[in-house]
Design a protein that fits this description.
Radius of gyration of chain A: 18 Å
Number of strands of chain B: 0
Helix content of chain A: 25-40%
Number of domains of chain B: 1
Structural class of chain B: mainly alpha
Radius of gyration of chain B: 21 Å
Largest interface: A-B, 16 and 16 residues
Number of strands of chain A: 10
Oligomer: heterodimer
CATH class of chain B: Mainly Alpha
Order of helices and strands of chain A: EEEHEEHEHHHHHEHEHEEHH
CATH class of the domain at 5-95 and 167-253 in chain A: Alpha Beta
Number of helices of chain A: 11
Strand order of the largest sheet of chain A: 6-7-8-3-9-10
CATH topology of chain B: Methane Monooxygenase Hydroxylase, Chain G, domain 1
Distance between the termini of chain A: 38 Å
Distance between the termini of chain B: 81 Å
CATH superfamily of chain B: Phosphate transport system protein phou homolog 2, domain 2
Structural class of chain A: alpha/beta
CATH architecture of chain B: Up-down Bundle
CATH topology of the domain at 5-95 and 167-253 in chain A: Rossmann fold
Shape of chain B: elongated
CATH architecture of the domain at 5-95 and 167-253 in chain A: 3-Layer(aba) Sandwich
Strand content of chain B: under 5%
Chain lengths: 258, 250
């Protein structure tokens, strides 16, 4: 069983500006939890709080509990680097290291975490690229620069890089927004496969994507300009998309306000 | 908040207005079919049969419209429930019109046979109930009125009872073979009217689903006692006397 998050009363600030307020929700193991909501609702801030990336922005801070495997990642004495290793992240734009080969990109996490023998690294690369559905396409050109790959391949490489270090949870912040529809569907298929081993939190602007791949969907909203983002509703995706409880969820997913 | 998806909303509104007009057309066709049973007027019967084309045209227009919206708009939540509901109501109304056509055809086939006034009265009573139910069903849809929708099974009970009694009524009240033959035709008419009541109840179920998001059958047709009493043995014994007439006697 993969790991889970228990998020309780989580708030986050950029300087004096409250970005998300008092969010409490659980992220269930081996499930895809989608975060949806209009721009500025705090989706990305929320996921960046889940691996303590948020606090890297000058003036940014978070308060509340994010319990991973029984431990609050915000407790004093918790090393943020170990949190970021346990909670992998895939970003909006594929961001392979431009000067590195496909091979080196895949094991970039290990290079930062100490050296390993070449044979072991190859095994890791093969496992990660296979899991990311990229192995067959790149196995004959592992030393080629990653920038020679298509956008969809680059994003799968970034997923391989994230899972190579065997995280417990995978955060994906709009991983398909820069990809064409076919590459998007490939990533979605991959997400469904990865769910068997990992717990996934997926931020998406594409509601149909949430409907297709997520087990549970959370709707976030900053109601008025300047309001912080709040959790409006979370539930099984089937229920959210057929019978949402909250009028604001209904309004957003049916596209009646934006 | 900005209002968005105006074109989409217009598509939904247009489909709703078409189905409301279709409801009126189906109701009208069915009412005229019932009149034909009473009058036996063949020209009117033919007009009813021809009138089905109008309802079918509505049916096709709605069906196509729904498919286009599904294909192009990605409807979810209440929009999705609305379209799913529309698919069902569309089919129910089309079937109601078909019942009208069936009745008109039967009326033509029975033309010239001696009618039984009592059976005729019962059919007219049933027709009034079925038409009321159809009105209530479409009103409940137009107003999203779940309470009205939920009242439909109760309206349907007398209709079911009259239909169940129809076989015995025909068999026992017919005066001679030609009248019996007429009655056998009318037994089928009774069944058609009863089915219209069922379609109205089903439309009500769809309305409740549309509004609440929870689909539940109002009644369970597969429940054993519903069908039981329609068996011939329950209404008539071989000597032609109603069952139970001699019960308690030694």
């Amino acid at each position: 069983m993969a790991a889970s998050f228990e998020i309780a009363n989580l708030s986050a600030w950029y300087g004096n500006r409250l970005a998300i307020e008092d969010m409490s929700l659980s992220v269930e193991p081996n499930q895809v939890t989608a975060l949806i909501g209009p721009s500025g609702c705090g989706k990305s801030t929320l996921v960046r709080c889940l691996n303590r990336l948020h606090e890297l922005i000058p003036g940014a801070r978070a308060q509340g509990k994010v319990v991973l495997d029984g431990e609050n990642i915000y407790d004093a004495g918790v090393d943020p680097v170990s949190v970021r290793r346990a909670v992998g992240m895939v970003f909006q734009r594929p961001n392979p290291f431009p000067t590195m080969s496909i091979f080196d990109n895949t094991i970039a996490g290990f290079k930062l975490n100490g050296r390993k023998p070449k044979a072991e690294l190859l095994e890791i690369v093969q496992r990660a690229l296979t899991a990311a559905g990229l192995w067959d396409e790149v196995k004959d050109r592992l030393d080629a620069p990653a920038t020679g790959l298509s956008g969809g391949q680059q994003q799968r490489l970034c997923i391989a890089r994230a899972i190579a270090v065997q995280p417990e949870i995978l955060l994906m912040d709009e991983p398909c927004s820069a990809l064409d529809p076919v590459a998007t569907l490939r990533i979605e298929d991959l997400i469904m496969e990865l769910r068997e081993r990992y717990t996934i939190v997926l931020v998406t602007h594409n509601m149909q994507q949430a409907a297709r791949v997520a087990d549970r969907t959370a709707f976030l909203l900053a109601e008025l300009a300047g309001d912080p983002g709040r959790l409006i509703e979370i539930g099984p995706t089937k229920k959210i998309f057929t019978q949402p409880e909250d009028k604001r969820t209904e309004g957003y997913i049916t596209g009646r306000f934006g | 908040m900005v209002e968005t998806r105006r074109h989409f909303q217009e598509q939904l509104d247009e489909l709703e207005s078409i189905i409301l007009r279709m409801g009126v057309a189906s109701h009208d066709l069915f009412r005229r079919a019932l009149d034909v049973v009473a009058t036996g007027n063949e020209a009117d019967a033919d007009a009813v049969i021809a009138g089905d084309d109008e309802v079918d045209a509505f049916y096709m227009e709605i069906e196509r419209g729904i498919v286009v919206v599904f294909a192009t708009q990605g409807p979810v939540a209440s929009d999705l429930r609305f379209l799913a509901t529309l698919l069902h109501i569309n089919l129910h109304l089309e079937r109601v019109a078909d019942m009208g056509v069936n009745i008109a055809k039967i009326a033509k086939a029975a033309h010239g046979l001696p009618p039984n006034p009592r059976v005729l009265r019962t059919l007219q009573d049933m027709g009034v109930i079925a038409l009321d139910m159809l009105n209530a069903a479409m009103d409940s849809f137009a107003r999203r009125d779940v309470a009205l929708a939920r009242s439909l099974p109760e309206m349907d009970d007398p209709l079911d009872n009259l239909n169940r009694g129809m076989l015995a009524e025909v068999l026992m009240e017919s005066d001679g073979r030609p009248m019996l033959e007429w009655g056998v035709h009318m037994h089928v008419v009774s069944r058609q009217i009863e089915r219209v009541g069922d379609h109205a109840v089903d439309i009500g179920e769809q309305v409740a689903y549309l509004v609440t998001g929870v689909f539940q059958e109002f009644t369970d047709a597969s429940h054993p006692e519903v069908e039981e009493s329609t068996r011939l043995g329950d209404v008539l014994r071989f000597d032609g006397r109603p069952l139970g007439a001699d019960q308690g006697e030694p």
